[in-house]
Amino acid sequence: MLANVTTPQDLDERFRRTVAGLAPPALPGRGWGTLDPDRALRLFEAQMTSRHLDLAARWLRSFGEGYYTIGSAGHEGNAAVAEALRWTDPALLHYRSGAFYCVRAGQPEDSGVDPVRDVLRGIVASAAEPIAGGRHKVFGNRDLNVLPTTSTIASHLPRAVGMAFAIERARGDRRRKSAPVRVPGNELEALVGAAPAAPGTAWPADALVVCSFGDASINHAAAVTAFNATGWCDHSGLKLPILYVCEDNGLGISVKSPAGWTEAALRSKPGIRYWSADGTDLAETFATATEAADWVRRHRRPAILHLRTVRLMGHAGADAEQGYRTPREIAADIDRDPLLISAARLVDAGVAVPEELVARYDEIGWQVRKTAEEVMAEPKLSTVAEIVAPLAPRRPVRVARVVAEAGERAAGPLAVKRAPEPAGPVTLAQAINATLADALVTNPAVVLFGEDVAAKGGVYGVTKGLRDRFGPARVFDTLLDETTILGLAAGAGSGGLLPVPEIQYLAYLHNAEDQLRGEAASLSFFSSGRYRNPMVVRVAGLAYQEGFGGHFHNDNSLAVLRDIPGLVLAVPARADDAAAMLRTCLAAATADGTVCAFVEPIALYHTRDLYEPGDGQWLSEYPPPGRWGATHVPIGRARTYGIGHADALTIVTFGNGVRMSLRVAAQLAAEGIGSRVVDLRWLAPLPEADLVREAAATGRVLIVDETRRSGGVSEGILATLVDAGYVGAVRRVSAADTYVPLGPAARTVLVGEDVILAAARTLLTI
Fold first, then answer.
1. How far apart are the first and last CA of the chain?
2. Are 554 and 668 in contact (CB under 8 A)?
3. Is the pLDDT of residue 27 over 90?
4. Three-state secondary-structure class, residue 235
């Protein structure tokens, strides 16, 4: 029955017919080299199992019970790659890694993993699937050290760089290359210098990261970024134990890779050693993979293993490859079917006879079919609560406890490591600097990195002095690439560190936003919470810089961050809030694995005054550790300022809007009109309860939104009020739907105090 639902190539029947027709040799032929016969048979069983899983996926799809048909047919040689590695080596796998997964499942001693059931559960979206729990079909299993990857090709490669970095940091291997490091300004001094003890990874000290992908993926920006970062690090002296595995079938769905392009491209990667093998030949693949893996493990340096494979049965079940491939091309790939090559070699070597191989093939097919029929009946995810459960766990009591405990450590045994408390009130920038310093003192897992954050101390001086105090292994500069920065953070977070990367300007985040949306924020979701990559991404952003700017330094759009499921978005306006909210984000990352974006309003970094020059009312005291718990700001709680009687108008705002709104509220108070200014502070999730309560208190709501009118924060605020049944008056002022221009023209498109005041007066007439 399975044969009736394969492609016209009919691989199933072809296997039986071809193998049954093999003639046992009069004398045993060539051996298996370093691959002994027993291992060869075991790997061949993994290849046959993977093939039957592909056939079963198409059978299930034919009557609506299967939801994923991208298979591994033609790539089954990756079984030998798995055999060449250790099951304790963390793996980020290509979606054609069925045979690899089948081998890895049997490698741990007394492994109870059933790879057939695992994969089929993913295909039918069973809630019992061991990693994604029915949320997607991925290769992943915590017990096997296989991390799930998304369908965005190559997006997992930058994460692999971060994982390798985390392994080496935990390993404590900080030997420098014999050649001198030639990096201007010692930028990489941070990464190769001595580091204090930090929480280790879940992987052994000599582990390596294996990361596989297809040939078309090497052209993706994320792959280019990862290769560049890997080579840059190796050239600079940083050891990264990564084995990249490119499984080259010559096609990206229907787009052919130019002949010779993949090899030329991979060979040319500086700092990454190149190996290649015929991926249809188990013995050759195993020998080469073993050599490459041993080299990476021994030298702690990166390598690429280029496997030449074929793709059988098209890209996926719905793909009619006859539309873009000639019959000759398809036939040539069928002739290189790795199962037929393995079977012929087994027979030629006298390891097995044709009848035994066909019988075992059919037996595996029956077992796969039987398991497929069983998993079809398993429950699917059926409620919103089930689906979102691992997305963004919120344990506010535990987060508050982490904050308080950090304060206790800072006031107690770690007090000698802290700098003296800041003398007098501090600015927003100074509060962030002090909070980061305290985080580095109280949590050895914290690492701070980005462009210009170390030697320079940040473009705005926010991280000034931190590298000098904590050393270049805790605070370091990276190469100037946002995808590298966020990918490094995602991998380091997976590896047991607590990364605090900086994106220098909000506009530059868009260069790398998929590393947040598709990678970092999705890991917990696609692993049912079994894996996480905590991080707090600091982003200098928003507008209103005086004498400097234009769109790329005055980006006023937060839409992409508010759209990421599970991500926490914090926007502090004042120094005391900045310190408390940053501590909350760090605690949430520690306690819940939360991915946080901490957007710092550039224009408020060094602001000191509120109403009059010299009044110092925008400054705040930095609390001593003993008060961290008492001043804790939970995620999703707003701050309300009562001005006058605070009964006529509610102004809802955030960021730069807080200072402007307070100034407008003071003008209204001078006229006897009381208002309350609500600083949302958290833009994802919005503080809905506080918002609705403060809106109802006056019945008049003015939303002051410094982001754009379309796609801006005000849309979410309005929707929250409507959903809650608010029936009072509401108006909003927001920035124009445009990029921010340079110089004084910026004032014409941004919200100003005059606009806020005019809107307030109009609303008060209702």
1. 73
2. no
3. no
4. helix
**Residue 139 and residue 100: Cα distance in Å, rounded?**
10
188 closest CA partner among 198, 178, 200, 180: 180
| Cα 401–chain centre separation | 27
State yes or no: pLDDT of 594 exceeds 60: yes
* pLDDT digit string, tens, across residues 128-177: 999 999 999 999 999 999 999 987 889 999 999 999 999 999 886 334 33
Q: How many CA atoms lie within 13 A of 618 on its CB side?
A: 26
Closest of 299, 602, 753, 158 to residue 149, by C-alpha: 158
The CATH code belonging to domain 17-379 is 3.40.50.970
Other beta carbons within 10 angstroms of residue 294's beta carbon come to 12
Name the residue among 219, 274, 268 with its Cα closest to residue 245.
274
pLDDT in tens, 567-591: 999 999 999 999 999 999 999 999 9
Residue 132 CA to residue 378 CA, distance in Å, equals: 15
The letter for the amino acid at 36 is D
CB contact at 8 A, 124 and 376? yes
CB 664 within 8 A of CB 694: no
* Pairwise CA distance, residues 396 & 408, whole Å: 18
Structure tokens at 685: 């999730």
| 3-state SS string for 8-49 | CCCHHHHHHHHHHCCCCCCCCCCCCCCCCHHHHHHHHHHHHH
Whether 639-764 and 396-627 are alike in CATH topology: the answer is yes
- The CATH topology of domain 639-764 is Rossmann fold (3.40.50)
What tens digit of pLDDT does each residue of 707-720 get?
A: 999 999 999 999 99
* Mean pLDDT, range 15-19, rounded to an integer: 94
Q: How many helices (H) and strands (E) does the chain have?
A: 27, 20
> 461: exposed, middle or buried (C-beta count within 10 Å: 0-12, 13-18, 19+)?
middle
CA 359 – CA 341 distance, rounded (Å) = 17
Give Rg (Cα) of the chain: 29
Name which CATH class applies to 396-627: alpha beta
Q: Which residue has the tokens 């039957």?
A: 52
Enter the tokens of residue 459. Answer: 């473009």
Instruction: Please confirm whether the linkage preceding 685 is cis (ω < 30° from 0).
Output: yes
Taking the C-alpha atoms of residue 513 and residue 295, their distance in angstroms, rounded to an integer, is 34
Task: Dig out the tokens for 510 from the structure.
Answer: 């868009």
User: Under 8 Å CB-to-CB from 455, ≥6 apart: which residues?
Assistant: 185, 186, 187, 467, 477
Domains in the chain: boundaries: 17-379, 396-627, 639-764
Q: Report how far residue 221's alpha carbon sits from residue 128's, in angstroms, rounded to the nearest whole number.
A: 35
CA 404 from chain center: how many Å?
29
Q: What is the spatial distance between Cα 578 and Cα 567, in angstroms, rounded to a whole number?
A: 18
Write the CB contacts of 597 (distance below 8 Å, at least 6 apart in sequence).
Answer: 516, 537, 539, 561, 567, 568, 569, 570
Q: How confident is the model at residue 398 (pLDDT cuts 50, 70, 90)?
A: very high
Rounded to whole angstroms, the Cα distance separating 723 from 717 reads 10
User: Of the candidates 559, 569, 460, 463, which has an alpha carbon nearest to the alpha carbon of residue 510?
Assistant: 559
Q: Which amino acid is at 169?
A: R
Give the separation between CA 524 and CA 516, rounded to whole angstroms: 12
Of 442, 396, 384, 383, the C-alpha closest to 594 is: 396
Give the chain's length. 766
Strands 639-643, 649-653: pairing is unpaired
Give the CA dihedral 37, 41, 42, 43, nearest 10 degrees.
100
C-alpha–C-alpha distance, residues 454 and 49, integer Å: 51
The 3-state DSSP class for residue 362 equals helix
Using an 8 Å Cβ cutoff, are 489 and 533 in contact?
yes
Contact in structure between 190 and 454 (CB atoms under 8 Å): yes
User: Whole-model pTM?
Assistant: 0.93
> What was the pLDDT predicted at 181?
35
Among the listed residues 421, 321, 389, 309, the one whose alpha carbon sits nearest the alpha carbon of residue 72: 309
